[in-house]
Design brief:
With 255 residues, the protein is mainly β. The chain folds into 2 domains: 35-127, Carboxypeptidase-like, regulatory domain (Immunoglobulin-like), CATH 2.60.40; 141-253, Ferric Hydroxamate Uptake Protein, Chain A, domain 1 (Beta Complex), CATH 2.170.130.10. Helix content is 8%, strand content 38%. It has a 5-stranded mixed β-sheet with strand order 3-2-5-6-9, with no helix packed on it. A 5-stranded mixed β-sheet has the order 10-17-18-13-14.
């Protein structure tokens, strides 16, 4: 006869934790340190084309992903690692259309729409025009600082945070005896320097208590040689950056 055991609250908590750890993780739409590519596929009359096959290929790694358009002719790839991509659309009875060198930056959703012309799928049309510079998929106000700017612009102490001051509404922190301005500390839209949200490769990089000695509100500052790009967002950013009131500061380092 087996003895009956009673589960204590602690053992129940441990079981729940194990169940959460072993549960499969669903795909998430949050981009954080990545981007997205979306668009609409239609024919020459303007009618949308559902079930069209879209192929996304990373031009640096040749890794490809596939998707199909929904009933509204729309497709989306998210999250997409920053880089240069080729996007191809094809559907039975129409010529295949391919758009190359589509650049995705951190926290950027690039719109790539297609207009398919009647013909054979084996016929290929290469579109060389670049996607529009205006990003209409997001209302966030911000600026992307790429690796060329990080590596080539003069930086005091090789501190990349000085480049965040290039963004609209971003100014150096107040001048005081703690020397916050000399450390690269900045304020967005008139708020406090420690009211910004720092993310490093989608990981929280915020200090719970601002380092007033060094004038920083982040935990770790990567060297400029390790930074691929970062995005300083100062207004209307999405709910995934809801920690701070001033600005969101997602960074993508080399992986």
């Amino acid at each position: 006869m087996k003895a009956k055991t009673t589960a204590t609250p602690w053992t129940q908590l441990i079981r729940v934790a194990l169940m959460l750890a072993l549960a499969p993780v669903a795909s998430l739409d949050a981009q954080v340190d990545a981007g997205a590519i979306s668009g609409v596929v239609q024919d020459t009359s303007g009618a949308v084309i559902p079930d069209a096959e879209i192929t996304l290929t990373n031009e640096g790694t040749t890794l490809s992903f596939k998707a199909v358009t929904n009933a509204s002719g729309k497709y989306v790839f998210t999250p997409v690692k920053i880089g240069s991509y080729t996007v191809q659309a094809e559907f039975q009875g129409f010529q295949t259309v391919r758009r190359s060198h589509v650049v995705v930056n951190v926290q950027q959703e690039v719109a790539v729409d297609f207009t398919l012309q009647p013909g054979q799928v084996t016929q290929m049309i290469d579109v060389t025009g670049a996607p529009p510079l205006l990003q209409s998929q997001s209302a966030a106000v911000g600026q992307v600082v790429g690796s060329q700017q990080v590596n080539n612009l003069p930086l005091n102490g090789r501190n990349y945070t000085f480049l965040a001051q290039l963004g609209a509404g971003v100014t150096p922190s107040q001048q005081d005896t703690r020397g916050l301005a000399q450390s690269g500390s900045f304020a967005a839209n008139g708020t406090r320097a420690w009211q910004s949200n720092y993310l490093l490769d989608a990981v929280d990089n915020n200090s719970n208590l601002m380092d007033f000695l060094n004038g920083t509100s982040y935990v770790f500052r990567p060297p400029v040689d390790a930074i691929q790009e970062f995005n300083i967002q100062t207004s209307n950013y999405s709910a995934e950056f809801g920690r701070a009131a001033a600005s969101s500061h997602p960074i993508r380092a080399y992986s």
